[in-house]
Structure formats: structure tokens, C-alpha cells
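Model the whole thing, not chain by chain.
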Amino acid sequence: MDLTPKVKFLGMTFDVTMMIGTVVSALIVMLIVFLMTRKLTMRPSGKQNLMEYLIDFISGITGTMLEKKQASRYLSFALTTFLFILVANLLGVAVMVTASAHGPIPALGITAQGLEKAKNSLSWFKSPTSDLNVTVAMAGAIFIYSHFAGIKKSPLNYLKGYVRPYWWMLPIHLIDELSKPATHALRLWANIFAGEVLILILREAPFYFTGVPLFAWMGFSVFVGCIQAYIFTVLAMVYISQKVAGE
Amino acid sequence: MSFAVLAGGIMIAFGALGAGIGNGLLFSHYLDGIARQPEAQGNLFGQSMIGLGLIEAMPVISIAFGILVLFGII
């Protein structure tokens, strides 16, 4: 396992690698969408076709999960979520920057103990979704938003949802509500983390020995990254739709 | 050999076992589906891939925690 540089600020610990990763993925998503939506024409060609296909694909997700009026409202949110997670997942497969540290760096929270455990390797760039904090933040934001939207729509209906169809179902509903964000975050994190660890392990061994499995696994990682981005978006829409769906 | 290595190994092994059973069931039913109705293959393929992503979650979570235990991080 590689160490990551961490900075302490206002009593909180910030992971520098994850901050770089998140900002780079966000910038790449912005760049892709910006470049793809220049010079829009009535008869689309090339990049505009691709963007229209992408939006059509996402509106297919929101359209099946939500009502027609709400579907267009959540379209841009779903598109942003999907593109960000997709880019973040694929970045880790394509680019992994690891440096070797020669001594402990107290300012970045790197101790001699940790260095010995990580064999002096220090990770500067990897997939931001391979860190549990990032996925918990995303899933937590969706969890809080879905409850907020439910209360905003109809507080009485929201409370009734917990005791439906019988009042003794309340504990089951509570466990259900709490397990949703947990599995939502863990699903994405575990897939990307396990993929990255296997790439790191295969990278350690000589190339003639692990070359073919490494490329096979990287191909599978691309597939897993796409599937998980899609599933994260679908589940986010399902969780929101369960709260805002009309009677 | 410490017990952490053994524990991590068991977690990864059972994750792989569960994923094998789950994916085997999913794809056997997928093949049943296209044998019965070959024209539905395109639709069923997409659906089974979503199912694959959902099924893979639990074993992969177990494997990820197994890796963390194996390398002594937690």
C-alpha cells in the first residue's frame, strides 16, 4: 500500500493526493463538456453527436426512475455525477504517479513508521474514488439531499413513509435508510480500490511474468469503472425518486 | 505468520466464492433467457451487466476489506 501525503488544517486532515485527483477529474469533465458543446448546429456531427448521445443515455436513466416533470430537473445532476465518477475511475487506470520518499516529511504527515510499512513509496496521483472518504462524501450528499427533498415536498408523506404499511415496520425502514448510503459508498469504493491494489501488486513483479494479466486486468478495470459509474448514478436516482415520488 | 494474513486470506477467498456463485447464477439465467428468446439478447445483455455490477458489490467489499486486513492497514 502506498502512503498518501496529508495536511492538517483547522483540526481536520486533508489528503493531498485525493484533492489533486478530485480537482483534476473535475477539470477534465469541465473541459470535455465545454469543448463538446461549442458551435452547436441543428444538424449535429462528430462531438455534438457524442454529447447528444450521452445526454440521451442519462435522460434514459432519469426518465425510467422519475416522473417526466422531475426527470428533466435532475438530468444535469445525473450527467455531472456520471461523468465525474467515470472520469475519476478511468484516471486511476490510466495514470498512477508514485514517488519514493527518502525520509520522513512531518509537514505532509509522513512518518518513518509509515514509510517502513509502505516500502518508501508515496502516492501522488491515483483515482479519487479509490478513497473511502470521497465516495462517502458523495453518497452522503445524495442521502442528505434525498431526505431534504422528501421533507420539502410533503413532510407528512415523508413521515408516513416510515410506518408504511404497518407501524411495526419502523425499525426495518430505519435500517433500510441507513444501509442505503453505506452500501452506495462502499460499492463504488471497494470496486475501484480492489482494482487499484491488484494493479499495484502486478506492477511489483517482473513484466515478463505479469504483463499479460496486468493488461487483462486493466481492461477489466475500464469495464468495471464504466459499470460502477452507471450503477452509482442509477442508485442515486432511485434513492431520490423514492423520496420525491408522488402518490 | 500472523493471524491478520490468515484473516485477510479467508475474507478474499469467501468473497471470490460468493462472486463465483452469484455470477454463475446470473449468467446461467441469462443464457436460459437468450436460448428461449434469442431476439431479446441485446436487452438482456444490458440488464445482466447491471445485475453483474450490483452482485459484484458485496464480494468486492469483502475483498477490499480483506486486502486492508492482509496488508495490516486496519
